[in-house]
Design goal:
2 copies of one chain form a homodimer. By secondary structure, chain A is an alpha+beta fold. Chain A contains 7 helices and 7 strands; from the N terminus they run H-H-E-H-H-E-E-E-H-E-H-E-H-E. The first copy, chain A, is 34% helix and 18% strand. In chain A, strand 3 and strand 4 form a beta hairpin. Strand 1 of chain A pairs parallel with strand 7 of chain B.
């Protein structure tokens, strides 16, 4: 798919068909995740692709009852748990290089969005689910210390095409040379 | 450009031609940034497009002498300062919704990578520069309290095509159902 069409077609999908994902399609999506840039190329990430129905139900229970992503965790054929490896990104010889500390969270934003966009280019849906019990999800998936589950990302064919969500106008947030100076 | 070609063509570019960027090209890149998803669609970001040579020189001085992105800050026709708005993403009624606190940093990873990929699709180069004096950069650009400069992103036509940087093999970090179980 053309790049800008991909950007436009990526929406947060919360309703999935049970159809499985062909292996070659999944491979391309994983390679897009793999290609993501990170701080000094440390690649502080892992992906656990959960397809076992029992594990998906356990993961679903780590979301609150009100979370709009709840149904998607069991409906989608795969839930990708994005795991961050702590203490690498933004560190040099064990010391944080910036006042922001660990850049893992930033790098995981980049990499999970590579996955979401690649999925969109294949006609697959995703949604970034970040509101759940991280520690409990880590226990369920056997994630060792020094790593943590950052997001759960359902991955599958959309049952419904969501309506487009509006964005702020560019004039509201793009400035020229100094904060507050209109650009456009 | 085709989506996967865009993913492959995005490299960290640290050497730029002085050529300016056509307005319609820049507009498409900004719209890709605008389309990025964020926590509850709060869009906790702003962009300051710095083209003034004096300001670029001041920003360059916020990088250490050893930073490999230093030359790029003055060479590129535009430096996009990505500004994060604090206390919105991952918050509900003023309270952090998760133990991770502010998701602004995660959302900025997503949005800046939308910009980097859109740039690549236009034949433009970028590099994520995250190692500089954030507070000083904020002062230079007049960024108000409650916001901070997260990254400086040079944007322009590459003077050199960088060589491809290797990545970990998928088998090293993609697991099936539980951490450590081989998927592929």
């Amino acid at each position: 798919m053309e790049f800008y069409d991909t950007i436009r077609s990526r929406q947060s999908v919360r309703s999935y068909k049970p159809d499985s994902i062909p292996q070659d399609t999944l491979q391309r999506v994983l390679e897009a995740f793999q290609a993501a840039p990170s701080w000094a190329n440390v690649q502080p990430w892992e992906l656990i692709l959960v397809s076992d129905p029992g594990l998906k139900a356990e993961l679903q229970a780590t979301l609150s009852e009100k979370n709009p992503g709840r149904a998607a965790i069991v409906e989608a054929p795969i839930v990708a748990a994005a795991v961050g490896i702590e203490g690498k990104s933004g560190f040099y010889k064990g010391q944080a290089s910036t006042p922001r500390g660990d850049w893992m969270f930033f790098d995981l934003g980049i990499a999970t969005e590579h996955l979401a966009l690649a999925a969109a280019s294949e006609g697959l849906g995703t949604v970034h689910v970040g509101l759940f019990d991280f520690a409990k999800a880590g226990e369920i998936l056997g994630v060792p210390a020094g790593r943590s589950v950052v997001e759960l990302i359902p991955l599958g064919y959309p049952a419904k095409t969501p309506s487009r969500v509006p964005r702020k106008d560019l004039k509201e947030f793009v400035f020229k040379d100094r904060h507050g100076q209109g650009y456009l």
